[in-house]
Specification:
The structure holds 2 protein chains of 2 kinds. Chain A is α/β, with parallel strands linked by helices. In chain A, 49% of the residues lie in helices and 14% in strands.
């Protein structure tokens, strides 16, 4: 079983939803990023979503945009992000999902699958690469044993749900709102419950819900409806305050994922 | 690579976040139906005729032809999109897309703009139909196109300055995409060029090909045949694609796109065809100016409308297949041609458009000076007068304030 699937199973066995934490690699720089990632992992992340900085992150809100700019200014490149992933892998067994926009990955070309696998990356999540275009990046990654994390949104219809299900392994990312990362989320909305129930019904792999989650209360609301809860922008904001604030928030969210 | 999900050889596609995919698919499904529906095309044609002033005229530029050394038999013909309502070709696309938005039941319009021409055209059509309109514009462009910002506001649109990144066109597109993803249920995004996810490159080309169709008829009436060459400036590439579309099947017609070489290809520029590489950005797979790691680079051009590091996927395909040829000219060459056109023909073109004229000497060298050459005058230059005044200042100062020593 893949590291990713094991993490979801272990969390479930503990009576929790898995806590998936997003941090942008190299924010604010290499050392600071590694320190924050390790602090978050130690404080209770089940899955690390490691963001590859991109100059034009159209699906992201202000927090992730700013983090990506800081990371690029600190010299982040995809090979360096993979080196950072390797450094994380040397320190912990946490599953690592590489989050990226398609272009930086496409520029690495056919070397990507092996490079990511060698760095200890367990899955790819490419936000602007829908199933019809996935083969180029997915096939080499899957061939090296990586999972391909597909996304479904509140707008996704039945036909698209099937297309996403066909290419997804590891877990599927259910986007909880119409908007960019970090936007306002009502985690108790009935429409969201119905959406997550439909996704759970349709997918045989775990479902992780994310976009706009910032509090333990929201995590708790989602933990009953999904197999995992993803937090990103809120972690970035906490990490910008201090490593301690980040660890506190992760502990808080971790408690929230208990069912 | 024969990938059915790509529309133009190895270029095109729909590289957008899942939240937007259903809206993009709905557009792709509805567009061919609308475009073959006589009620839809009838309304589009009537508005372009009665409101936008089509057909635009074809003007023979005899004095400029002489200045460029054209020979007997050679004719220089100008397709006058600058005479359209709102001052450029952009209105052709806006009328069609807003009609489509109404057909899809959308009640709010958003757009991006570089030079402000597309923003003004969108704001105009929204005023005409009584629809709320928000235009995203890079903060740097807001500054250098103050007149167009005011025009949009006067037309009732909300202009949102975008400070992110290079604060120019690419950043305005990023922000418009973020608005669209949050408001996708009631909002249509009127993309202003032949770029973005499918079906936009096809749809915008279809809506702009009225330029080429009219031009073909007008040239035939004047010369009895086809032109030998067609020339247009290229940023995203909508005016060029619009005039090219009618001539692509005619192998004898040479097609020339002219990009912005800015300060020169060694410095800051926007010459995507010359210096760009295959990439995925703004929903499409096309050529783009980027670094080795796939980060988009900041483009530069004196003309805000060409200040974009990417290009429409069909142009990338025409370039790759050799059907069209792409040249680039610098800011300085552009300014020189802007003056030359003004002083030989009494036409003050937009800075974008002036790029097409600046490439004429090189193009005439290639096709011959006894040929029939059409230039698409994509827009008029009123909006650029402050930029041009500033750029020409050193000369003006030295000639008007020079004191005898």
């Amino acid at each position: 079983m893949s590291r990713i699937r094991s993490a979801f199973e272990n969390a479930n066995a503990d009576g929790r939803a898995a806590l998936v934490g997003y941090l942008t690699a190299y924010d604010p720089d290499l050392d600071g990023s590694l320190e924050r990632i390790m602090a978050a992992c130690d404080a209770g992340l089940d899955v690390l979503e490691l963001g590859v900085p991109f100059s034009d992150p159209t699906a992201d809100g202000p927090d992730v945009q700013a983090a990506m700019l800081r990371a690029l200014a600190a010299g982040a490149t995809l090979p360096r992000v993979l080196d950072l992933a390797r450094a994380v892998r040397e320190r912990t067994d946490i599953p690592i999902v590489l989050f990226s926009y398609a272009n930086p990955l496409v520029q690495m070309g056919s070397r990507l699958g092996a490079a990511a696998a060698n760095a200890g990356v367990d899955g790819l999540l490419v936000v602007d690469c829908p199933p019809a275009h996935a083969a180029e990046l997915r096939d080499p990654a899957v061939a090296r044993g990586l999972d391909w994390i597909g996304l479904v949104a509140p707008t996704t219809n039945e036909a698209r749900m099937s297309a996403v299900a066909e290419v997804s392994t590891g877990f599927v990312y259910a986007v909880t709102l119409k908007g960019v990362t970090g936007a306002e989320l009502d985690a108790d909305a009935e429409a969201l419950s119905a959406q997550l129930a439909a996704v759970k019904e349709r997918f045989s792999i775990p479902v992780a819900a994310g976009f706009g989650v910032r509090s333990a209360k929201q995590a708790k609301a989602l933990a009953g409806k999904a197999d995992g809860v993803v937090v990103g922008s809120a972690l970035i904001r906490a990490a910008a305050q201090s490593v301690g604030a980040l660890a506190d928030l992760v502990r808080d969210l971790h408690a929230g994922t208990e069912r | 690579m024969a990938n059915p999900s790509l529309q133009f050889g190895e270029f095109g596609g729909r590289y957008v976040a899942e939240t937007l995919m259903p809206a993009v698919e709905a557009l792709a499904e509805e567009w061919p139906k609308a475009w073959s529906d006589p009620t839809f095309t009838g309304e589009y044609t009537a508005i372009l005729r009665d409101y936008a002033g089509r057909p635009s005229t074809l003007t023979e530029a005899k004095r400029l032809a002489d200045a460029l050394g054209m020979e007997p038999g050679g004719r220089l013909l100008l397709k006058r999109e600058d005479l359209n309502h709102t001052g450029s070709h952009k209105i052709n696309n806006c009328v069609g897309q807003v009609l489509l938005a109404r057909r899809l039941g959308k009640t709010r319009i958003i757009a991006e703009t570089g030079a402000g021409q597309h923003g003004v055209a969108t704001a105009t059509v929204c005023a005409y139909f009584g629809l709320p309109c928000t235009v995203y514009m890079g903060a740097r462009d807001v500054e250098r196109q103050a007149l167009n910002v005011f025009r949009m506001q006067l037309l009732g649109a909300t202009v949102v300055p975008v400070e992110a990144g290079s604060a120019t066109l690419k950043d305005a597109i990023n922000e418009a995409l973020r608005d669209w993803v949050a408001n996708v249920d009631d909002t249509h995004y009127v993309i202003g060029s032949v770029m973005g996810p499918d079906p936009y490159p096809t749809m915008v080309r279809d809506l702009q090909r009225v330029i080429g169709d009219e031009c073909k008829t007008q040239v035939a009436a004047l010369t009895g045949g086809l032109p030998d060459a067609v020339v247009a400036c290229v940023g995203g590439g909508s005016n060029a694609m619009g005039i090219f579309a009618a001539f692509v099947p005619d192998a004898s017609v040479a097609l020339y796109g002219v990009e912005a070489a800015g300060e020169g290809l060694e410095g800051k520029h926007a010459a995507t065809m010359t210096a760009g590489k295959l990439g995925i950005y703004h929903g499409m797979r096309s050529l783009v100016l980027q670094d080795a790691g796939g980060q988009l680079q900041e483009a530069h051009s004196i003309s805000a409308g060409l200040d974009y590091p990417g290009v429409g996927p069909e142009h990338a395909h025409l370039h790759e297949t050799g059907r069209a040829k792409y040249l680039s000219v610098t800011d300085a060459q552009c300014l020189e041609s802007l003056s030359q056109l003004a002083q030989t023909e009494g036409i003050i073109a937009a800075l974008e458009t002036a790029h097409a004229f600046a490439a004429l000497p090189a193009i005439l060298d290639e096709v011959g000076r006894d040929k029939v050459v059409v230039v698409n005058v994509s827009g008029r230059g009123d909006k650029d007068m402050h930029t041009v005044m500033d750029a020409m200042k050193p000369d003006t100062d030295s000639s008007s304030t020079e004191q005898p020593s």
